[in-house]
Structure to design on (178 residues):
């Protein structure tokens, strides 16, 4: 493993570079990815305090948070963190087209949310923990990378994975105790 530190026009990059057996670069995480995932985790913590499933999301463009969201229990089954963040960002930008934006979310998006990312033209999806029950960004399905659709998103995962998983596990442990 080798650590790289570089500065470019928009962010400081501090990354662990790991080469696979064939010499391919495996992973590059920026300080920004951890910073913005922490913001998504803060949204998840707010949901937890409300008694909602602790999933949080933020949408970022050019290092500015443009949309926030967290899961909400309501009569609307589409109130997932990702959809709420997309709605918030679209209202702020006054457009449905969120090209150039990155979605940070604490757990891998479900099929509905992955489809919303494609339809909103989100450029990049970064998530913390894999969703083994309904993940649609590579775990069960890969909607955001499906070239048959009209848009494809870049995907990164595993950012602050343990923190994201621990919050979800704590929530469900408390629910089982009731």
């Amino acid at each position: 493993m080798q650590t790289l530190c570089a500065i470019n026009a928009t962010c400081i990059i501090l990354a662990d570079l790991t080469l696979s057996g064939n010499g391919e670069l495996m992973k590059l995480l920026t300080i920004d990815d951890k910073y913005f995932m922490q913001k998504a985790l803060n949204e998840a913590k707010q949901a937890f305090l409300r008694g909602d499933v602790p999933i949080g999301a933020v949408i970022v463009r050019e290092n500015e948070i443009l949309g926030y969201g967290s899961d909400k229990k309501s009569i609307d089954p589409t109130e997932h963190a990702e959809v709420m963040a997309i709605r918030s960002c679209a209202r702020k930008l006054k457009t449905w087209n969120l090209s150039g934006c990155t979605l940070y979310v604490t757990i891998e998006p479900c099929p509905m949310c992955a489809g919303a990312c494609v339809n909103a033209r989100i450029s990049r999806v970064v998530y913390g923990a894999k969703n083994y029950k309904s993940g649609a960004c590579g775990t069960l399905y890969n909607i955001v990378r499906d070239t048959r659709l009209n848009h494809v998103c870049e995907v990164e995962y595993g950012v602050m994975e343990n923190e994201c998983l621990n919050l979800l596990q704590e929530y469900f442990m408390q629910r089982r105790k009731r």
Q: What stands out?
A: The chain has a mean pLDDT of 87. The first strand starts at residue 2 and ends at 7.
